[in-house]
TrEMBL record:
Pfam family, one: DUF1931
Organism expressing this protein natively: Amycolatopsis azurea DSM 43854
Protein name: DUF1931 family protein
Signal peptide: none
UniProt GO MF annotations: protein heterodimerization activity
Length: 149
């Protein structure tokens, strides 16, 4: 990740949950986004197929109430941080054998942003005193997301 992008994400985590992250955390964060977006698209692909479509629409994505609320929180943070364009660059598009509609493509940065807010807040739920999450905290948060998404 370019230095400018890294600085914005570091600021994002400070604003979202008073966390100090470093470059190794940003690598974990990138892996987290790739995995969670992939998992969302696995479900979205099945939903689109079940509805007789070969294009994934936004309604196919399993966006829960909680994720939707985190997406709204991200939108407020995004006004100051402008990280959505960086998220767009970071997001890996999983090979699905299905196309994404333009609306689905356009929604991806907001979904990734919502997942990012949820990730940051999950650290504080696990340990309200954590400032700089280490490997153990990252592993715990990853296990929680694996259970839920």
């Amino acid at each position: 990740m370019p230095v400018m992008g890294a600085a914005r994400f570091e600021r994002f985590f400070r604003m979202a949950a008073s966390l100090d992250v470093d470059k190794s955390d940003l690598k974990r964060y990138d892996e987290f986004l790739d995995r969670e977006i992939h998992d969302l698209f696995v479900v979205a692909k099945a939903t689109a197929k079940a509805n007789g479509r070969d294009v994934i629409e936004p309604s196919d994505l399993p966006v829960t109430k909680g994720l939707q609320e985190r997406m709204h929180e991200f939108a407020k943070l995004e006004e100051d941080l402008e990280v959505a364009p960086l998220l767009e660059q970071l997001l890996a598009r999983p090979p699905l054998g299905m196309a994404l509609s333009e609306d689905t493509e356009a929604r991806l940065p907001a979904i990734a942003g919502g997942l990012s807010v949820a990730l940051a807040q999950a650290f504080k739920i696990i340990d309200p005193r954590v400032k700089n999450p280490g490997s153990a905290e990252w592993d715990q948060v990853f296990r929680i997301f694996e259970l839920l998404l």
